[in-house]
Structure formats: structure tokens, C-alpha cells
Amino acid sequence: MKPISKKIKITEADITKQIRDYLKMRNIFHWKVMQGLGATPGIADIIGIYQGKPLAIEVKTAKGKPSEHQISFIQNFTKEGGIAFVARSVDDVVNNLSEIN
């Protein structure tokens, strides 16, 4: 008899919740962006403020790829002095924010 192996699929929604829980724990002001008609193309999933600077986090799964609009948004955001990056886990957020300190 073969052992049963199940792969647990982690979704962007799961990762977003984990990241938001971490940001809440750290008292980092943020909100989840709800995409809709008229939204800026490529706007990040999570927007906030960290140490007085605008913060934008694009959430992706391990295999997810940011779109051209998302890459452009991140580039423009950082060019204007904000903090922006793609996060595939809470560890990515921890690492990116620790680089700022």
C-alpha cells in the first residue's frame, strides 16, 4: 500500500493573511487594497506606512510572477522614496523591513 501524500496548496490569500497578521502584531499601519474599477494598474496588495515611509507589498505564491504593471508600480513607488517589494512569505516581509532598520 502506497503512503498517502497530500500537498498543501498555499494561496495568495493565505500569505496575505499571514503578512497582515505580522504587520498588525508589529503595529505597522496598513490596509488591504481591494482591486476594482478605476484602480491603479499594478497597485500592490498591501499598502501602509513604515517608519514614516510609504509601504507597498505585492503578495505572490512561491511560483507566482508579478505582472508588468506590478513591476512598474514597485519601481515607481521606490523611485519616489517608498518601500516596495514582492513577498512570497512573512519571512520576505521580515527580511525587507529589517534591511531598512
What does this structure look like?
The protein has 101 residues and is an alpha+beta fold. The chain has a single domain (12-100), classed as Trna Endonuclease, Chain: A, domain 1 (3-Layer(aba) Sandwich), CATH 3.40.1350. It has 3 helices and 4 strands, in the order αβββαβα. The chain has helices spanning 12-25, 68-79, 90-100; strands at 30-32, 46-50, 53-59, 83-87. The chain has a 4-stranded mixed beta sheet with strand order 1-2-3-4, with helices on both faces. The longest helix is centred in the N-terminal third of the chain and has 14 residues, at 12-25.
Give a concise summary.
By secondary structure, this protein is of the alpha+beta class.
State the secondary-structure class. Answer: alpha+beta
What's the domain count?
Answer: 1
Rounded to an integer in angstroms, the radius of gyration calculated over CA atoms is 15 Å
H/E topology pattern: HEEEHEH
The tally of strands reads 4
